Amino acid sequence: MTDVSPLYGLRLRTPRLELRLGSREELVELARLAERGVHPPEEMPFAIAWTDRVGEPEFVDEFVAWHEGHLESWSPERWTLNLLVWVGGELAGTQGLLAEQFAERQVVSTGSWLGLEHQGRGIGTEMRAAVVELAFRGLGARRAESSWLDGNEASRRVSEKLGYVGLATRTQSPRGEPVADHVVAIERRDWRSPVAVEIAGVEPCLPLFDGRASLQA
Ligand SMILES: CC(C)(COP(=O)(O)OP(=O)(O)OC[C@H]1O[C@@H](n2cnc3c(N)ncnc32)[C@H](O)[C@@H]1OP(=O)(O)O)[C@@H](O)C(=O)NCCC(=O)NCCS
Q: Which residue segments constitute the domains of the chain, with CATH numbers given?
């Protein structure tokens, strides 16, 4: 198993947010936040319909195991960093950054969610900007990708506001019926973060990401 302990020292700070890995207790708190609601029940914004399992007795344990599993199976060739997001000390959601064969491809993807009570206040845009800054400035990525399922206007708008452009359309079937999934991307040369992002503790993590820091002093 890869020693991922340096990742626990990684901190991203924006004017309103702090992003870092969570302890087991904090992951349980995040699961409880998901149980209080991430989206209206008639909608499904995720390619994998994990929120449909809210309310099942194993939900919290499986949720925590899913987060911890990404760290247990971490390798520089294939990694998923799911940072927890705090707004003024309150846990609001999670922002993920993932890549495969990063050293060769230099491409990252993202995924995220916020508890319903935290949505619609610009937090989703700020937390995406934080991990894209980590990817471009901290790790030396060349392109960041994301995708939004048909009907997910909030996710579509976050990407649009940050300058992503359409790349491809594929199909996902989270609840059995096919839904168009729009892949969008932004290149490093086109990226301007709308917020200042402070990145701390990335140097010891670079071998884990197979990344190359280009942080300015
Ligand atoms: C997607 C998500 C992370 C975005 O975070 P957020 O904090 O709500 O997003 P922001 O407030 O930064 O921006 C949302 C933008 O979408 C717009 N928007 C939101 N819902 C909308 C709707 N139904 N129709 C049109 N625009 C909408 C907002 O007006 C805002 O744009 P604006 O700043 O131009 O007004 C959050 O809404 C969420 O967790 N949703 C449920 C889970 C999810 O969809 N995750 C992503 C799946 S990959």
A: 5-209 (3.40.630.30)
Percent of the chain at pLDDT exceeding 90: 96
Choose between 76 and 1: higher pLDDT: 76
Q: How far is the CA of 92 from the centre of ligand 1 (A)?
A: 14
Tell me how far apart the alpha carbons of residues 83 and 101 are, in angstroms, rounded to a whole number: 20
Neighbours of 86 (CB within 10 A): 18
pTM comes to 0.96
Neighbours of 41 (CB within 10 A): 9
> pLDDT value at position 211?
75
Report d(CA 115, CA 35) in Å as an integer.
Answer: 9
Instruction: Output the six-digit token pair for 127.
Output: 């937390």
Query: Ligand 1 pocket by C-beta < 6 Å: which residues?
Result: 38-39, 45-46, 111-114, 119-125, 152-155, 157-158, 161
What φ, ψ does residue 147 adopt, rounded to 5°?
-155, 155
Of the candidates 26, 135, 25, 4, the one whose C-alpha atom is nearest the C-alpha of residue 75 is 4
Q: Which of 51, 98, 113 to mutate to test the pocket of ligand 1 (most atoms within 8 A of CB)?
A: 113
